[in-house]
Amino acid sequence: MDLKNQTKLLFARELEEMLKTIPMDKIRIVDLCKRCNTIPQTFYYHFHDKYELVAWTFLYDFSKTYVSQVLEYSVESIVDNLKQMNQRRVFYQKTYTQHSQNSIDQYIQKFNIHSAIDAIEKYYQQPVTFDQLLEIKYHSYGMMGLFQEWINDKSTVSTEQLAQFQFDHTPDFLKIAYQNYSFKKVSKKLH
């Protein structure tokens, strides 16, 4: 891992520690930087605000499954990704309580929809249809609702059951596109 990503990961880990005792909306960049033994300019060199750091952390976790490994979209890859996110369960629980304009839920929704559109257009070599877009959004919104219940311990569904359900209910046209899609460009957002 290069120095730039090590620095970002340091901020992410320290934010995660702070979230154990401080609500997200009370965390100040100055305090985060003090805990990281750095100055705010270093933070702002990498991120616009703490919400961009949260989004980067999600991409980092996502990339550990879909970029760092050679896994295609499958039940196994979804399980792996959920387990990755489960390692930061408190982090996701605390960041999901935010409903601001920059919330992680909105970020992940946009990420899901844009990556689905890109995968479909690359695989099928034509624009996404109106009906496909509605199915993508319906699937994403539903799965994110189930994910939020799971990450907040408001569901009895296991990681494996959630992954199987997500895979089984992914629209066929999207499943095929994802199974032939390289998520490598996601890693570019990490740099």
Describe the structure.
With 191 residues, the protein is mostly helical. It is 70% helix and 0% strand. It starts with a helix and ends with a helix. The chain is globular. Helix 4 (50-66) packs antiparallel against helix 5 (75-86), helix 7 runs antiparallel to helix 8 (130-151) and helix 7 crosses helix 10. It contains 11 helices and no strands. The longest helix has 22 residues, at 130-151.
Would you kindly provide a brief summary of this structure?
The protein has 191 residues and is mostly helical.
Question: Helices, strands, pairings?
Answer:
Elements: H1 3-19, H2 29-35, H3 40-46, H4 50-66, H5 75-86, H6 89-95, H7 104-124, H8 130-151, H9 159-168, H10 172-179, H11 184-188
Helix pairs in contact: 1-4, 1-6, 4-5, 5-9, 7-8, 7-10
Q: What is the tally of helical segments?
A: 11
> Residue-averaged pLDDT, rounded?
89
| N/C terminus separation | 11 Å
Poorly predicted runs are none
Radius of gyration: 17 Å
Global morphology: globular
Helix content: 55-70%
The ordered string of helix (H) and strand (E) elements is HHHHHHHHHHH
Q: Quick one: biggest sheet?
A: none
> Strand content of the residues, in percent?
under 5%
According to DSSP, the number of beta strands is: 0
SS content category: mainly alpha
